[in-house]
Amino acid sequence: MTHTSVASATAVSAYAAPAPKAPLERITIPRRELGAHDILIEIKYAGICHSDIHTVRAEWGDDGNFPIVPGHEISGVVAEVGAEVSRYAVGDRVGVGCLVDSCRECENCRAGLEQYCTGELGMVGTYNATGRDGEPTYGGYSTHLVVDENYALRIPDGIPLDAAAPLLCAGITLYSPLAHWKAGPGKKVAIVGLGGLGHMGVKIAHAMGAEVTVLSQSLRKKDDGLRLGADHYYATSDPATFEALAGTFDLIINTVSADLDLGAYLGMLRTDGTLVQVGAPENPLSLSAFALLVGRKSIAGSAIGGIPETQRMLDFCGEHGLAADIEVIGAEQINEAYERVLASDVRYRFVIDAATI
Hints:
The protein is an alpha/beta fold.
């Protein structure tokens, strides 16, 4: 499909889950015509996030609005711009992350925290949401995307587009709490889990100057962890780990979606330390209040980042030569890739070549 035909057409190719837990298949989806501030992105790559799997398998308690086209780690090139677009020009390298709109008027939106929008519209997800036009949003497992220029990001020239795609979710999901809780020189940071999220956490925390420890179920990925920038690597399946590291960390970021003994992890925090949850398990979290009381410890959550912070993350990654470790796949491999993600058989992010869609 040429750029000119997309401009006047409303249909593009995509991969979608037609029903909960159903395999993804190729379909045709509508894309809106360009508004004055919209840009048309020719998608080059789309990362596969564990959130995509949770959503299409209805594991977060919501059956969703099927068919669902997942994908919120999107990189591509501007193919066309609306009449009043000022931020981007045709040919620019751009990305889209987990949100494509918000109310733009609430306190959080005005502060650049669009991911926490409290307005009536709320944060509009890149997929499985409803836009301000009342139409469903479809994600990045497709050939093209139309988005308001204010919700697109500029990808630095030094980052390859395929390895940049996962930065739009995995990268910002870790950058935001690391920046907020001031990871840096003199701070001891632990990353729980060395997957798609965790491997970016290690890279970013190391680049920020923190002393980085990986807490993983086994030592299977230890060599990788050290290569990515970790100073230490421990197996959480060994009870001695929790004894050896008691009272060690200023900040622990939990990237896994499994049910963990949070009290045990809180025990590894120093006084006034914080455990930040970025993974989203199906089951409610459980812990004893005493795990917080003794040591004035905190447990917190963090969700992606706003548009300004996501741009800061991309610029930071560009300055430090950071990008995701990826395995590029064709669209026909998406269902197989989902099974491999669930089996932890990817190092560390699958990225779909949109040319195969």
